[in-house]
């Protein structure tokens, strides 16, 4: 059995558990909010542990009485047809990120139905992963069978949304080589309005197009106006994604919503906490359009929220050199690189280009083989 790892604190809990599952290394995490008034694991973190338990067979999860110490001994990823209900405190995006990392290495292709809020203030939305992450995963896996559908949209905290995710399994991952960013070919997006005035979605589209059409004529943003019962929370927002001339896997995606206007930035963001911003649809649309332009300029082949995904597949690839061009590494990505060193004793080579501020990351793959996949 692989040696156990030990960490302290609640930060990067999902990263640590995902890498423990892939590397089959037990992990103990202590001092989880030990000094806070409400110590221990939060409800949404316990909910994530239940998701891991559904995805795997033979996992052992032990939590002490106060919830401040967690021991996780990973089992094998089995996948299959599953259902999971997200905790109301976090959106479905909180669960999608680790799912996208684990799904290709399971025993059976995953067909999962996730219910809960599709959009929330603390996590990338389900539409973000649908527009930006699925094309990237298709490229990394070399399979077009990856699919993410938003069946019903909803916002935190009351939920009511539904997402369908399916992913094939792979035996091995090919080396990743993504250096050519290309030029922006087109911009697509989706504006949604849930239990709010139907005209809000059109106001979001008009204000975003007012910014983007100055740079590119090929801009199309659809709308989704959703009347819902009283039990569902109200909200509105917009998601924008750019596609490159190189291919749809080279994309940048941003989003803005009425929920995010008074909240801290998501954990992947490079942005510092800002004073409360206006929640007017016109202001949200304009800010989101400007954010997309900034993301395109500074983010290399993938945007700042998806940096860790290609870095993981680079490590899992055959024993050959993989290389990718990224923007400035976020704190979330830097910690991911440290965790890869802890779990796999793997060190990435990071070179910064002083001219454009981009970063080139190179690594030799581990030659990971999916032993869970049944042989034909």
TrEMBL record:
Question: Which residue ranges traverse the bilayer?
Answer: none
Q: Where in the cell is it found?
A: Nucleus, Nucleolus
Q: Where is this region: Disordered?
A: 255-282
The record's Pfam families line, in alphabetical order, gives: RTC, RTC_insert
Assign the protein's first listed, main location to one coarse class. Answer: nucleus
Domain named RNA 3'-terminal phosphate cyclase insert is located at: 180-296
GO BP terms: endonucleolytic cleavage of tricistronic rRNA transcript (SSU-rRNA, 5.8S rRNA, LSU-rRNA)
GO cellular component, alphabetical, reads: nucleolus
Any one GO MF term held by the record is: RNA endonuclease activity
RNA 3'-terminal phosphate cyclase domain segment(s): 6-349
What UniProt keywords are attached to this protein's entry?
Nucleus, Ribosome biogenesis
Give the protein family.
Belongs to the RNA 3'-terminal cyclase family. Type 2 subfamily.
Q: What protein does this entry describe? A: RNA 3'-terminal phosphate cyclase domain-containing protein
What is this protein's gene name? 100638686
């Amino acid at each position: 059995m692989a040696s156990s790892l030990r960490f302290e604190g609640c930060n990067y809990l999902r990263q640590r558990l995902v890498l423990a599952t892939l590397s089959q290394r037990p992990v103990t995490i202590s001092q989880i909010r030990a000094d806070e008034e409400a110590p221990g694991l939060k409800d949404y973190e316990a909910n994530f542990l239940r998701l891991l338990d559904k995805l795997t067979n033979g996992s052992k999860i032990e939590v002490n009485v106060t919830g401040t110490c967690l021991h996780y001994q990973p089992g094998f990823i089995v996948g299959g047809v599953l259902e999971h209900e997200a905790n109301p405190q976090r959106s479905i995006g909180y669960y999608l990120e680790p799912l996208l990392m684990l799904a290709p290495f399971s025993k059976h292709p995953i067909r999962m139905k996730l219910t809960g809020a599709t959009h929330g203030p603390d996590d990338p939305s389900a539409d973000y992963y649908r527009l930006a992450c699925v094309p990237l995963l298709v490229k990394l896996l070399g399979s077009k069978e990856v699919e993410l559908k938003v069946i019903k949209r909803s916002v935190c905290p009351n939920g009511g949304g539904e997402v369908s995710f399916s992913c094939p399994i792979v035996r091995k991952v090919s080396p990743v080589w993504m250096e050519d960013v290309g030029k922006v070919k087109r911009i697509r997006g989706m504006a949604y309005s849930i239990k709010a005035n139907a005209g809000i979605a059109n106001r979001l589209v008009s204000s975003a197009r007012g910014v983007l059409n100055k740079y590119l004529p090929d801009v199309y943003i659809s709308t989704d106006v959703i009347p819902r019962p009283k039990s569902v929370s109200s909200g509105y927002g917009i998601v924008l994604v750019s596609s490159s001339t190189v291919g749809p896997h080279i994309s940048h995606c941003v989003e803005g919503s009425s929920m995010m206007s008074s909240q801290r930035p998501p954990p992947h963001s490079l942005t510092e906490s800002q004073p409360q911003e206006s929640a007017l649809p016109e202001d949200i649309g304009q800010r989101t359009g400007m954010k997309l332009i900034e993301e395109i300029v500074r983010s290399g082949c993938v945007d700042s929220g998806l940096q860790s995904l290609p870095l993981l597949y680079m490590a899992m690839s055959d024993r050959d050199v993989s290389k990718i061009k990224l923007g400035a590494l976020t704190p979330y990505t830097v910690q991911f690189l440290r965790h890869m060193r802890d779990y796999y004793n793997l060190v990435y080579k990071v070179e910064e280009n002083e001219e454009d501020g981009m970063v080139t990351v190179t690594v030799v793959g581990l030659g990971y083989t999916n032993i869970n996949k049944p042989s034909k």
